[in-house]
Amino acid sequence: MEQGIGTGRLGLGRVLSVGWREYCRHFRSILPIVLIVYIPINIGLSFVPVDALIEQHGLRGFRMYMKVVQLSEFLIGVLATLSIAKLVEAGFLGQSCTWRQAFHHAFSRWGTAIVSGMLGGVIVLGMFLLLIVPGIIWSLYYSFFLYVVALRGLSGKAALDYSKSLVKGQWWRVFGYLLVINVLGFLAGALLAVPFIFTPENRVLDILSDTLTDIVAALFLVMTVVFFLNSDAIRVRSEEPPALPESPEIPPEATPQA
């Protein structure tokens, strides 16, 4: 792996800068992945009568729409996450990986990712039913599980436990880093959507706006992948047994003279 990504814990600024560099480096591969995955999603969502839902059901209608968005992201959008994670790690390892190869890899891990996500969701829901705080803690424990599924060949509880092992011991650091990355992603998406507020109601423009937002959101996904890879490399190094000191060279005993 590239020198520096696993030699020590990256600061937040370094995670953001390396993420930006890798996003630019892989942009030609990231773009077709985002378009293939999210244009169908955005076309489908454009036919959801969100205005009618809100007018008829108020806040409940908006929540219904957001559940549809979340379900689409979970079932289909996960392909983009798996693909981009594969691209970024391959780049750090110095391996050649086209967007088609990354997409094929994502398909091979698609079912595993969904099953692992459902299992994690059940566990987190159980924690929330006990108390709010355990639910929050466990939801962060499992925040890396998709990257574990994509890059470490694990699934189900093993993938969730691996993610938990990365977060444990640096819970607040992970919370802070992911919070900043997500807030920056939200602000970037909101800023990008501002010009479309003044355009006439048009389904094509809505699809274009959502797709541009998804392309920009991939930047912050890459930053999260960089954070995962750094955390994972540090974990692996911490588990390596210390190198044994070299034994001093013992001179041969003098042969007694007759």
Number of domains: 1
Beta-strand portion reads under 5%
How far the N terminus sits from the C terminus, by CA atoms, comes to: 60 Å
- State the major sheet: none
Q: Name the overall outline.
A: globular
Q: Whole-number radius of gyration?
A: 23 Å
Number of strands: 0
Following the backbone from N to C, one meets helices and strands in this order, namely HHHHHHHHHH
Sequence stretches where pLDDT stays below 50 over 5 or more residues = none
Range of helix content: over 70%
Mean pLDDT across every amino acid position: 87
Alpha-beta content class:
mainly alpha
How many DSSP helices?
10
Looking at this protein, list some descriptive labels.
single chain; 258 residues; mainly alpha; 0% strand; globular
Explain this structure to me?
With 258 residues, the chain is mostly helical. The chain has one domain (12-235). It contains ten helices and no strands. It has helices at 12-25, 27-46, 50-57, 59-93, 99-130, 132-141, 145-152, 156-167, 171-197, 203-239.
Can I get a quick summary?
The protein has 258 residues and is mainly α. The chain has one domain (12-235).
Task: Outline the fold blueprint.
Layout: H1 12-25, H2 27-46, H3 50-57, H4 59-93, H5 99-130, H6 132-141, H7 145-152, H8 156-167, H9 171-197, H10 203-239
Helix pairs in contact: 1-10, 2-4, 2-10, 3-4, 4-5, 4-7, 4-10, 5-6, 5-7, 5-8, 7-8, 9-10
